[in-house]
Design a protein that fits this description.
The chain is mainly beta and about 425 residues long. Helix content is about 10%, strand content about 60%. It has two helices and 20 strands. It has an 18-stranded antiparallel β-barrel. Strand 16 and strand 17 (about 365-380) form a beta hairpin.
Length: about 425
């Protein structure tokens, strides 16, 4: 019988204790989107910080890794989701509903190769099976999946990583209209180095990011997903004004190339640069604020019939507030402005706001509510401007010590200035998750 026991974690050295916390202080999680962002350097840095925080939480949770295989420790879980989508093709007229089954497997591995080196694996993968539209069946890999290696050398924390995901919910990308045949593989291979100088934290990162459509489809105006890659560079320096309060500067750049293009892709290549600042601090004992803001320059190269293009410049921002009101209620409010790559390769200037709240008002039942709003417009002239918004609600309850259930509802309304590109859809989901 396989040995199962709680794992004892060795005491961390100073540089090990500070590195994940510092990474979180330098950057916080930015809501993951299926498309690439214009401020790619900022996004990649935030994703790196979130991955480090997830590893830290797992490592410090007693009994999280409960399966010991040789020198490695594992955690396994499985799930089954059932979802009804009232408009699987995101169409304005004649919306078609479908029932979708999603079995899923989750695992996390930690391998302490030495006192200074640790190998980590996080993976969530599954399959979506459509009852009435089997042509839309596809595999998926959840955002947050990664293989990474942590090294600690003196005051340096070096993280080598390969982060990967396959996104497949078209309604989560507001630039997708008229198709449910949506699936994209995103892979980011790179490294991040954090230099801990006590009061000063310096961070440098590089990622090679590939975007490959697995299901391209055709949108209503005749285009699908382009494939491409980005070379992403980022650096930041923060000063600890006092414990828990970090203020600093960030600089980044991205070289974007499309290896294949569609009829809707106005640009063949582009480069983007951004410079700005960040601030991360508790406002009170119960309120925490994180902000990123700066200036970005997006410089595209023309593709096909589009013979003249101009640079796009403007302010980018990402603001997050977390508030624990009391033992029963906490919420997160985030919003900002960013430059994103659309489904068909065009570039979107997007403003967004998200609110999420957790309510612990019923015994053994967790209630969650949310509201999402996004306003976007194509950077090049004469194209679409849209709004997408809608509320969501979820209920979750443990059935046994290892089995939990959740029921959710999400509503989306998309409004466009172009004919035929509005839609309304509802998503009802039931999920069962078992932790071994």
């Amino acid at each position: 019988m396989t040995e199962i026991r709680h794992l004892k974690h060795r005491p961390a050295k100073k540089s090990q204790r500070r590195a994940p916390t510092v990474a979180k202080g330098v950057c916080v999680f930015l809501g993951l989107l299926s498309a690439a962002h214009g401020q790619e350097a900022v996004r990649m840095s935030m994703a790196s910080a979130e991955a480090a925080e997830a590893r830290r939480r797992a490592a410090t949770t007693i009994g999280y890794y409960n399966l010991k295989l040789g020198p490695t420790a594992w955690n396994f879980g499985t799930g089954l989701g059932v979802e009804y989508n009232s408009n699987v093709n995101n169409t304005e007229s004649n919306p078609e509903g479908d029932l979708i089954f999603r079995p899923q497997l989750n695992t996390r591995l930690v391998w302490p190769v030495s006192d200074q080196n640790t190998l980590n694996l996080a993976l969530g993968a599954g399959y979506s099976a459509y009852v009435n539209n089997p042509q839309l069946d596809r595999a998926f890999i959840t955002p947050g999946s990664e293989l990474s290696f942590d090294l600690y050398v003196g005051d340096f924390w070096i993280n080598l990583h390969d982060r990967f995901s396959i996104t497949e919910n078209s309604y989560q990308d507001p630039t997708v209209v008229g198709t449910g045949n949506y699936s994209q593989l995103q892979n980011a291979l790179g490294l991040a180095t954090t230099w801990d100088l006590n009061k000063v934290i310096v961070r440098v990162g590089y990622d090679h990011v590939n975007y490959d459509p697995l299901n391209g489809g055709n949108s209503q105006n005749g285009g699908g997903q382009p494939s491409g890659y980005s070379e992403v560079f980022s650096t930041s320096a923060g000063y600890a004004l006092k414990p828990g309060m970090l203020l600093g500067l960030e600089l980044g750049g991205s070289l974007i190339s499309y290896t294949t293009t569609t009829t809707n892709t106005p640009y063949s290549n582009a480069n983007q640069w951004n410079v700005g600042g960040f601030y991360d601090a508790p406002v009170t004992e119960y309120i925490h604020f994180t902000g990123h803001a700066g200036y970005t320059v997006y410089s595209p190269e023309a593709n096909g019939a589009l013979t003249t293009v101009s640079d796009f410049t403007g302010i980018y921002a990402q603001l997050d507030i977390t508030h624990r009101v009391n033992q029963y209620v906490n919420y997160t409010l985030s919003g900002g402005r960013t430059i994103s790559v659309a489904f068909s390769g065009g570039t979107i200037d997007r403003y967004f706001a998200d609110w999420q709240a957790n309510w612990k008002i019923l015994r053994k039942v967790s209630l969650g509510t949310s509201f999402h709003f996004e306003h976007g417009s194509q950077v090049f002239a004469g194209s679409e401007t849209y709004d997408q918004y809608g509320p969501g609600i979820s209920l979750s309850r443990p059935i046994t010590a290892k089995l939990t259930s959740s029921l959710g509802y999400q509503f989306y309304w998309r409004d466009s200035n172009l004919p035929g590109r509005n839609y309304v859809l509802s998503v009802v989901s039931l999920n069962l998750n078992y932790a071994f």
